[in-house]
Amino acid sequence: MTEKKLRFPEKNAWEISLRVRYSETDQMGIVYHANYLPWFEMGRTEFCRQLGISYREWEERGVLLPCVEAHCRYKRPARYDDLLVVRTVIRELKRCSVTFGYNVFREEILLTEGYTKHAFTDPQGKLLSRPEPFYGMLERRMISSESE
Hints:
Blueprint: E1 14-19, H1 36-51, H2 55-60, E2 67-74, E3 83-94, E4 97-106, E5 109-119, H3 134-147
Antiparallel strand pairs: 1-3, 2-5, 3-4, 4-5
C-alpha cells in the first residue's frame, strides 16, 4: 500500500517536532492513544507563545482556557523513536471559546487529526466574552492568514 503524502496549506499553522519516547508506546510498540492529547497541548502552548503571550501569562492575567471538548482520529500508527510534527491551527474563534485543530505527521504522512475546544473563563470558571488582549491576538492571526 502506498502512503499518501499530504500538505495542508493553512497559513495560520504552527508546527512543533517531537520524538516518540519508549514510555509513550504500548506493548505492541505503537503510541498509546491517550498520548496524543498531551502532544496537542504542546502544539497549542507553542502556538500561543508564537503569538507573543505564553499560556502562563494568560493565566497570570486571569484568563483560563479549560478544555470543554476533545476529539482525536487515528489514521496510521506512530511508533517508538518516530520523529513527528504536530501542526496546530485555529479552527474556530467564537465570543467565549476557541477551537484548535491538530494534525500529526511522520515525514508528511498524516497519522492523526483532532481538535480541542476551549472556553475563555476567569479563575472561578465564569465565562469571559472576547477577553483582551488574547481574543484580539487570535482574531488578528486568523484574519492575517485568510488574507495571505
